[in-house]
Amino acid sequence: MATSNKPIVWGPFAAGGTLTAFITPALILLTLLAALGQAPDLLAYDRLHAFAGHWLAKIAIAGVVFLSLWSAAHRLRITCYDLGVRADTVVATILYAAALAGTGASVLYLMRI
Amino acid sequence: MAEEVTRKPYVRELTWRWIVRHPRYVRYMAREFSCLFIGGWTLLMVWGLKQLAEGPAAWAAFLECLKSPASIVFHVLALGFATYHSITWFNLTPKALPLQIGEGFVPDAAISGAHFGAWAALSLAVLYLAGAF
Lengths: 113, 133
Description:
- The structure holds 2 protein chains of 2 kinds.
- Chain A is mainly α.
- Chain A has helices at 6-35, 45-53, 55-82, 88-112.
- Chain A has 4 helices and no strands.
- In chain A, helix 1 (6-35) crosses helix 3 and helix 3 packs antiparallel against helix 4 (88-112).
- The longest helix of chain A has 30 residues, at 6-35.
- The radius of gyration of chain A is 17 Å and the shape is elongated.
- Chain B is mainly alpha-helical.
- In chain B, strand 1 and strand 2 (104-105) form a beta hairpin.
- In chain B, helix 1 runs antiparallel to helix 2, helix 1 packs across helix 3 and helix 3 runs antiparallel to helix 4.
- At the A-B interface, helix 1, helix 2, helix 3 and helix 4 of A face helix 1, helix 2, helix 3 and helix 4 of B.
């Protein structure tokens, strides 16, 4: 029987797609408010530092970063194929590696908070 | 055993131009391109975490960077594309998760509607807990 890594790749994509659909617009609105000079209370250094300092929040943030980046990477991979880039293995390797690198970086920074 | 190719093989033309051939394709690509904005914004937040870990001055510099015109334009586009992703995702949910009760299936509109309702509630909760209003 042929083995496939499709479920491993597709599972986080579906989870990330659902998660980003539920919370990303609201989160972007928070940083948009900050960009417009109306930063919400949570984005004040002391409050955000205290929030991100809790181990539960660290796990949640790292999880959101991983699922968001992975689903974006997977979708971009499919989009590259749609746009005529047929070097799928190369594209997939680069994009998934970038998603994992971004997640790794966020874990590193969270450990320093 | 390798097959002899005697005729000129058909090579399908590969272009991106099919996108503009039909409004349906344009909408599909708008949905797919949302990943650039969601992924880009997430990477921006990873950078924000780095700044937050470095201290109050670095965090203040990050907030100042967010106020640049390019950042504001990016945020407005990202908000639009992220919202479009949510709408298309929840509209597709009944196809991905058909729900059967007894003989019949729960109507698509009920499943989508429940997700839209939960999305609204969650968004308000996030904004309220973050002190946006």
